[in-house]
Amino acid sequence: MMNDKAIVVSNAAVILKKGGGRLLKSGGAWIFDNEIARIDGAYENGDIVAVNDFDGYFLGWGYINTKSKITVRILSRKVEEPVTAELLERRVREAWNYRKEVIDTSSCRLIFGEADFLPGFTIDKFEDVLVIESLTLGADRLKLLVLDICKKVLAEDGIKIRGIYERSDAKVREKEGLKRLKGFIGDEFDTKVQIVENGVKYYVDVENGQKTGFFLDQKNNRAAIARFCKGKSVLDCFTHTGSFALNAGAAGAKSVHAVDASDLAIAQAEENARLNGLEDVVSFETADVFDLLPKLEAENKKYDVVILDPPAFTKNRASIKNAVKGYREINIRGMKLVKNGGFLATCSCSHFMDPELFTKTIGEAARDAHKRLRQVEFRTQAPDHPILWAADESYYLKFYIFQVVD
Questions:
Q1: Which of 344, 349, 326, 348 is nearest to 334 (CA)?
Q2: Count of H helices and E strands in the chain?
Q3: Predicted local distance difference test score (pLDDT) of residue 161
Q4: How far apart are CA 395 and CA 387, in angstroms?
Q5: Which residue, 206, 214, 209, is CA-closest to 161?
Q6: Over the stretch 186-219, which tens digit does the pLDDT of each residue have?
Q7: Nearest to residue 324, comparing CAs of 356, 374, 361?
């Protein structure tokens, strides 16, 4: 039996208003502050509490934080299954077994929050290193226990974890009343980790890279563009550490021009190109894509394949109009740079840019660019980032491949 000391189950019960808990009742994990009628009993924020409907019907066990608009996040829905180390181990084991069925697990997202029924947790595995992002007080309380469980479950498959790094430095933690954290959990180690994905080698900087160091969610999408790139000229915008560009180069592209606004990302991308012997095929440039695309257009540059993998232009509903303008702008410019009959890969990683709005925005861009699009594929995030239909927030990546025709 594992140590349960991190788990504090209070005697408190959160009682919902009549009509409250709609998201929870449809399979979600969140209880919002405006759904709660009262809280009976003593508790501290971060404790496990019971959640009951207005009529006393039991709905679940979850951790509470009254400083957050999402006041309770549910970990168990059965009254006879309170939150214990055994329950958490079952959640981790099920998450790992699922990934072994659906994806190459040498590097993968091991835990994806609500979609793995472990709200507040993101844990990525890069070979023999784990990187954790904890976004909530409840997850902070449980993280050492959950990490111990991860190490135990992986060890059963002969995987010995040599180090853990914490990247709980997202601004969203402030909504929970939490400080941003970053650093080693346990012994220090070399934070530059070499991984292989789709046969391409990368150095992942788990300390200084964006998020947890590498965007694993595009794994299958990077493989999908390979078939269009052999012998072709490719433009990769927002290349980050070079992942799409290097997949294109490894697939036999004639030339790849890759662009990112970050000097650090470009330096890492160049190192990754050398690691794969692709430095003569893939060239990198530090530039603002919004400035560069009109310049390339003015120079009458054309490419066989253009890839647009921008960061999330919006992280809330309030800025969605500006995000739409940004996506429309880069897609108009990107389409104009594609040779007639060439290919455009374009995506959005913003949850708030829903599939319907993203599709509409690309359609408007095609009309403005006087281009016709033939859809080759529509894809989402890799299956180690599962989309739980009851949890909208788990579906965020939309990825199209089009043939662009004049």
A1: 344
A2: 9, 20
A3: 98
A4: 5
A5: 206
A6: 999 999 999 999 999 999 999 988 788 889 999 9
A7: 361
How far is residue 343 from each of residues 333, 340, 371, measured CA to CA in Å?
14, 9, 12
Asked whether residue 185 is assigned to any structural domain, the reply reads: yes
- What CATH number is given to the structural domain containing 104? 3.30.750.80
Cα(167)–Cα(84) distance, rounded to whole angstroms?
25
Dig out the tokens for 77 from the structure.
């829905």
The reported pTM is 0.94
- Residue-range definition of the domain harbouring residue 273: 207-405
Is residue 404 within 8 A of residue 345, CB to CB? The reply is no
User: Contact 35/4 with Cβ under 8 angstroms?
Assistant: no
DSSP state of 394: G
Q: What is the DSSP string of 280-298?
A: TTEEEEE--HHHHHHHHHH
Our answer to whether residue 150 is catalytic in this structure is no
Which of 76, 95, 130 is the last residue in one of the domains? 76
If you search the block for the tokens 């902070």, which residue do you land on? 140
Mean pLDDT of 63-72: 97
Here the CATH number for the domain that contains residue 253 is 3.40.50.150
Query: How many separate domains does the chain show?
Result: 3
18, 193, 229, 265 from 208: Cα distances, Å: 47, 12, 31, 10
What's the confidence (pLDDT) of residue 319?
Answer: 81
Separation of alpha carbons 356 and 340, rounded Å: 26
C-alpha closest to that of 115 among 405, 396, 387, 397: 387
pLDDT of residue 316: 75
Q: Are 125 and 165 in contact (CB under 8 A)?
A: no
Q: Which of 108, 237, 347, 349 is catalytic?
A: 349
Residue corresponding to tokens 């530090």: 286
Q: To 10 degrees, what angle do helices 320-336 and 355-369 make? A: 40
